[in-house]
Amino acid sequence: MTSKHDKPIVGETPARQDEPPMVTALPLPPGTLSAENQAYFEKCQEKLGFIPNVLLAYAHDDAKLTAFATLYNDLMLAPSGLSKLEREMIAVAVSSVNRCYYCLTAHGAAVRQLSGDPVLGELMAMNYRAANLSVRHRAMLDFAVKLTETPHLVGESDRNALTAAGFGPRDLWDIAAVASFFNMSNRMASAVDMRPNPQYHAQAR
Questions:
Q1: Does residue 35 sit within a domain?
Q2: Burial class (CB in 10 A: 0-12, 13-18, 19+), 108
Q3: Residues 155-204: pLDDT tens digits?
Q4: Is residue 65 part of a domain?
Q5: How many CB atoms neighbour CB 50 within 10 A?
Q6: Cα(204)–Cα(150) distance, rounded to whole angstroms?
Q7: Residue 68 domain-assigned?
Q8: What is the pLDDT of residue 203?
Q9: How many distinct structural domains can be found in the chain?
Q10: C-beta separation of 110 from 140 below 8 A
Q11: Which of 57, 108, 145, 172 sits a CA distance of 20 to 30 A from 27?
């Protein structure tokens, strides 16, 4: 006996197995990349073994790709009073509030990799408050999440809590900047149904 699900719905085009995986829901054709961005993609392929889909999503417009990548690399990779792991923890905690599938998958993998602790990566994605965090990290994530959920309520007491946890003025700026960047990124990823690279799912498990 055949099920009604054995036949494609009228008007529906079955997915072809040889089609490349979807990056976003928008049919934006790739743009012409500058030599710098082409070299950036080649470096990603060499170091990671793939090009992150978020970069491919922006590649329809070389100027937008440059702006996104420049800000991302400055916030997440440049010298800072925050470690790379701390910045990734902020990314995941903010993305958890916003339920951003792309960023939870990609940056959850980064937390697992940088910390060497798969459980921490899962806790950041699900509920950082359940993790056994230091006073420094709890204050950092509490601030980032409050800035995400109720930014109009952030005040001097919140900044003082970061100071008491050992963060300086530049650190506070960086915490806020990373949290703000991922609030923007989460919304863009959700708006266009951005899909993470499958490789992230298996990393650092």
A1: no
A2: buried
A3: 999 999 999 999 999 999 999 999 999 999 999 999 999 999 999 988 87
A4: no
A5: 13
A6: 33
A7: no
A8: 85
A9: 1
A10: no
A11: 108
Is the pLDDT at 21 greater than 90, yes or no?
no
**How much is the pTM?**
0.88
Task: Give residue for tokens 């089609």.
Answer: 19
The CATH number of residue 133's host domain is 1.20.1290.10
- Polymer length of the chain: 205
What Å distances lie between residue 77 and 69, 84, 124, 145, 178, CA to CA?
11, 7, 20, 21, 11
pLDDT in tens, 32-68: 999 999 999 999 999 999 999 999 999 999 999 999 9
Domain residues for 160? Answer: 83-202
Cα separation, 50 vs 47, whole angstroms? 8
Phi, psi for residue 21 in degrees, rounded to 5? -60, 150
Q: How far apart are the first and last CA of the chain?
A: 42
Quote the Cα angle for 67-146-156, to 5°: 100
Model confidence at 11: pLDDT above 50? no
| Contact call for residues 23 and 52 (beta carbons, < 8 A) | no
Is 6 within the bounds of a domain?
A: no
- In degrees, rounded to 5, the angle at the alpha carbon of residue 33 between the alpha carbons of residues 29 and 37 is 130
Structure tokens at 160: 């003082």
